[in-house]
Amino acid sequence: MPLLDIRDLTVTVKSDGTETTLVDGISYAIEPGETLALVGESGSGKSLSSLAVMGLLSSALSVTKGQILFQGRDLLGLSAEEIRKIRGRDISMVFQEPMTSLNPVRSIGSQIMESIEENLGLSRREARDRAIRLLTEVGVADADRRLKQYPHHFSGGMRQRVMIAIALAAEPKLIIADEPTTALDVTIQAQILDLMARVCRDHGTALVLITHNLGIVARYADRVNVMYGGRIVESGDARAIYAAPRHPYTEGLLQSVPRLDQDRSVPLRPIRGNPADPFTRISGCRFHPRCPYVAATCRSTVPAYENGVACHFPLDASRKEAV
After folding, report:
1. At what angle do helices 124-137 and 108-120 cross, to 10 degrees?
2. Closest Cα partner for 190 from 214, 167, 216, 168?
3. 160 neighbors 94 (Cβ within 8 angstroms)
């Protein structure tokens, strides 16, 4: 049985009496200890689908269809109190900007210990000892002293390490990391991603890694779901997709990433146009206004998701050469 099994999840928003679909019938599963990447541009539905798993959607948003099965239990059928007990204890989330997630007027120690005491039922002394061990594990030196400090005493990279420690506090089975390195410089990004990969491996924790950068996927993810316009357009083994993308959008994402193995004179090939606007109706494939391989069928008919790709004419070597 998968640890997390999302089936036909649809998230909508109501505005001025009109209901708009933001996440459109996505399905995927993640096994215990596996790392799954959700990749796509801003607005593709990556974060919204994950907030639905956590039960953290705003009041304007609602899940109108589908199931979110965690260890065989549908989270959408649980009460707010039941979801709260699962959130933090069994499923944790690391957000992309730790300064807005940490309480600026509470010490780092109190914020880590709160999760430990609430979810594991340990005494104050036991919670403090565990908090020190967690900070040490995520690379915060002199953890005993730094427990007493506040978020503004920490750099961006160190604050993110604290967020990872909080996420690990109750030994969850699943961590959702929502672009955890966006606000950090490149060197710190690599350190944080390596840290998350190591602690998840050591603890046997499954990881959903949300990112807009396919460049990090081949190194850290086992599988990848590429999202566009609220839908999954391609999924499969991360290395296989990196080596031979089948959807034009995936190919475009890869071509937009600078590569060290190419001559500096080779220009980047950004995807033309703008990401799909969920409030603008587009017939057929939502990617067709930006697709270099567009055909008449693409403009009129929504492609079915089959064999890991949602495209009327999946890419292959012969087609790429012919276009």
Report:
1. 120
2. 216
3. yes
Going by the DSSP 8-state scheme, the letter that residue 304 receives in this structure is: P
* Residue 308 phi, psi (nearest 5): 85, 10
CA distances from 269 to 168, 212, 286 (A): 39, 16, 20
Give a yes or no: residue 313 inside a domain.
no
**Whole-angstrom Cα distance, residue 215 to residue 211?**
10
Q: Give, rounded to a whole angstrom, the gap between the first and last alpha carbons of the chain.
A: 43
Choose the final residue of a domain: 145, 170, 195: 170
The alpha carbons of the chain give a radius of gyration, in whole angstroms, of: 21
Q: Using CA atoms in the order 63, 101, 201, 228, what is the torsion angle rounded to 10 degrees?
A: 40
- CATH number of the domain encompassing residue 177: 3.40.50.300
pLDDT in tens, 42-90: 889 999 999 999 999 988 899 999 999 999 999 999 998 999 889 888 9
Residue with tokens 């994950």: 50
Q: CA 232 to CA 76: how far, in whole Å?
A: 21
* Whole-number Å distance between alpha carbons of 43 and 13: 13
238 within 8 A of 222, measured Cβ to Cβ: yes
Specify whether 118 is located in the same domain as 260. Answer: no
Q: Where are the alpha helices (DSSP H) in the chain?
A: 46-54, 80-86, 98-101, 108-120, 124-137, 143-146, 156-168, 186-203, 217-220, 238-243, 248-255, 296-300, 317-322
Q: Are residues 257 and 192 in the same domain?
A: yes
Low-confidence ranges of the chain (pLDDT < 70): 183, 317-323
Q: Which range of residues forms the domain containing residue 8?
A: 1-90+172-272
Contact between 215 and 37 under an 8 Å Cβ cutoff? The reply is no
By DSSP bridging, strand 91-94 and strand 174-178 are parallel
